[in-house]
UniProtKB/TrEMBL annotation:
The protein's annotated pathway: Amino-acid biosynthesis; L-threonine biosynthesis; L-threonine from L-aspartate: step 5/5
PROSITE patterns, per database record: DEHYDRATASE_SER_THR, RHODANESE_3
Organism name: Dehalogenimonas alkenigignens
Name by which UniProt lists this protein: Threonine synthase
Catalytic activity: O-phospho-L-homoserine + H2O = L-threonine + phosphate
Listed Gene3D superfamilies: 3.40.50.1100
Amino acid sequence: MAKPGVLAQYGKFLPVTDKTPLITLGEGDTPLVRSPRLEKEFGAGELYFKLEACNPTGSFKDRGMVMAVAKALENGFKAVACASTGNTSASATAYAAAAGIESIIVIPKGKIALGKLAQAIVYGAKIVMVDGNFDDALRMVRELCDKQPVALVNSVNPNRIEGQKTAAFEICDSLGGAPELLFLPVGNAGNITAYWKGFKEYRGRGIIAAAPKMMGFQAAGAAPIVLGHKVDKPETIATAIRIGNPASWKQAEAARDESGGVIDMVSDDEILEAYRIMAEKGGIFGEPASAASLAGLIKMKRRGTDFGGQKVVCVVTGSGLKDADTAIKGFSGQFIEVAAELAAMEKALGY
Ligand SMILES: *Cc1c(COP(=O)(O)O)cnc(C)c1O
């Protein structure tokens, strides 16, 4: 049977009407994978990774985008637009292509992982590069959509948050309840807002007894919520969370405070360390921003937090393949070179 997608699966929790087209590219229903090795390493009761890289365009953005594009179609729009550090544009252009409407993506010059740009190019977006940062790009798209018959599909579009909250539902459905802690990266803060909304709705309906603490992590060079002020020139290797003025800032603080969680920051070194540990000891290849989840857990562990007896979920927001550059840079010079004969290879491998 074909995968139903999140609109068909969770329609009763979403702004789906009988006029909403139930489009899908097979998003959602992503694996929740337990990692015995990392669980042991960090002393967690149970440690799971929610593999959002398994969505059709390789990131969680597909969950919100399918909802946003379906609503744009329902409302008669023939074009969608977004400002994006990469994954939002990849997702928007894929769903627009499948629906037969135009997509316009506005990106800040430079600092875009190449794999994501490749996706927008291949899916056929109109790509505008702005000489500015992400916040400039978002401002310009908002102005365009205010004036022209184009649907804005950034996470300020409430339909995005609605679709994204289905990830919280899936985690609870898989575990038969909520975890104690949910670790996730925070950029524009749409995702933490969406997860919290999802958990609260399940709790409100009595499907789960309690909601998890929301543990959000920003990159140290792009940590406006932690610092309590906008960051004019956000800098981090984790391009997907390189954001100085999050659109859902207030909602992220509410998620933190209402859940009894934290929003803290991790350095690029901590992100890269977690990125490697997740791959080398978990078999999970997330993009650098995704590793902020585990980096946050490791930071707390080192500061003495005991995760024993707790169910912990780390969200792996996007695929490492989108940013192969970062992987290969960290590896350079480590190839084992041998002559083309078995004996040489055996010797080099230490047999
Ligand atoms: C968008 C994105 C984030 C950040 O999510 P926000 O909703 O902007 O906080 C993190 N990781 C990846 C891979 C993303 O694509």
